[in-house]
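Reopening: structure tokens for the EPU complex, inputs below.
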Amino acid sequence: MAIRSNRSDAIFHYRMKDKFLIRGLGGKKGLTGTIKVSGAKNAALKVMAASILFKDDITLENVPEIEDVKRMSDLLTHLGCSVKHIRPHTYNIGCRKKINTDLSNEISKRMRSSIVLLGPLLGRFGTVSFPHPGGCVIGERPIDFFIEGFKKMGAVVHITGGARKKTYSLSISGKKLRGATIFLRTPSVTATETFMMAGVLAHGVTTIQNAALEPEIKDLADFLIRSGAHIKGAGTSTVIISGNGTLTARGPYITMPDRIEAGSFIILGALCAKHLEIKNCNPEHLSALLHILESAGVTLTIRKTSIIISNGHHGAKKFKIINVKTHEYPGFPTDLQAPITVFLTQTKGEAIVFETIFEGRLGYTESLEAMGANITPMDAHRVLVKGPAILRGRKLESPDLRAGLAFIIAAIIARGDSTIHNVYNIDRGYEHIEDRLRAIGVSITRVGN
Ligand code: EPU
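Re-run output (same inputs, fresh job):
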């Protein structure tokens, strides 16, 4: 085990030192061409975790080649599952035998999505232990919903260690988790997914009330249903699961398109493309963003699986500024809050960006201010943006993957050169981003240590 952890550490430190050099367009509409959207990180990671619910192997296709997928593969391998990366974007995962149920400290501490393994592990093996999960530094990110919910399902919880070094051990006394009614105080995406998976192997009926509605949840449910699970209401606020035992794969899971990546490319296009086609996306999942951009005056052609932006010679200055308030799906996604703030810095007028989901997700705006943006913090959840501002290239540190991509967008529209450090944070969620951006005209280079 120690060898694997050390190896992972070495990779983390090596990649952390990569940086991107970006030459800004200085306000020109320089980008043109087609950019393809990858499979959704937050869908693929959950289906990888769901492999533990199956008695046979599952195959996942259109999986993004990103660091978080590698970490989830490491985590599953560490548990004793067989993870085969059979070709680019395709994985075969099997957890046929009894596996270890202690989640690796090193990996879980770095990846919030490790929490979704709790449902499948407790459901199938009756025990799990894990450190307080990490991930992007965007707020407190408690796990109380998980602890309370699993207690209701019959788990006994032991917590050891101090404030920042807590380890949780959960086990069930009976043979199986028991179905329960779980009310989520706020609609949590990973809690909904975790209890949905736990419910599949529990005895009786599990009802999740005030469930999250994100499309990745319905996508996961559809795959589980196709494999024999009894789940009703996924994608609505009440999800009902009748426990029906381990599942049998009936065909591969094809990862749905990443709506956050698609949305970020649309924002980039609105800001600085002459003509950009964003392919392989699902516009139905992007209604909140498309509504805001259209209200701001961006011209979009929306097709079934692609979106085209044609800007002619006009600058973003002509766009109308609009207040943005993040909200659970189908509201405006918190994961697009940083990119849309970059957009707002280029429009004329004043707008408030209100981050309602996470309390630490506006810290990156300081760096935009350093680039020349006119942004005033109002409180932990709100900033006032005044536009348009001329952004100038800077040295930037990517604080999390979504703000990291927002910095790339800011650097592309800025005057002069920018260096973005902590590229590992961007690689966690975006596949070969520099190659795809270069293909549409961005001057971007990755430099190793
Ligand atoms: N919450 C609690 N207690 C809990 C769980 C959640 O109070 O036990 C609160 C959170 O603090 C937050 C709210 O519930 O205020 C909603 O958070 P949620 O649990 O939905 O977030 P998450 O499931 O941890 C997922 C995505 C995030 C995305 C959010 C919101 C994954 C792996 N992560 O996180 O994605 O921002 O939903 O849509 O699915 C990213 O991909 O960069 C990312 C951060």
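The first strand starts at residue 19 and ends at 23. Confidence is low (pLDDT under 50) at residues 1-12. Marking as resolved unless the reporter disagrees.
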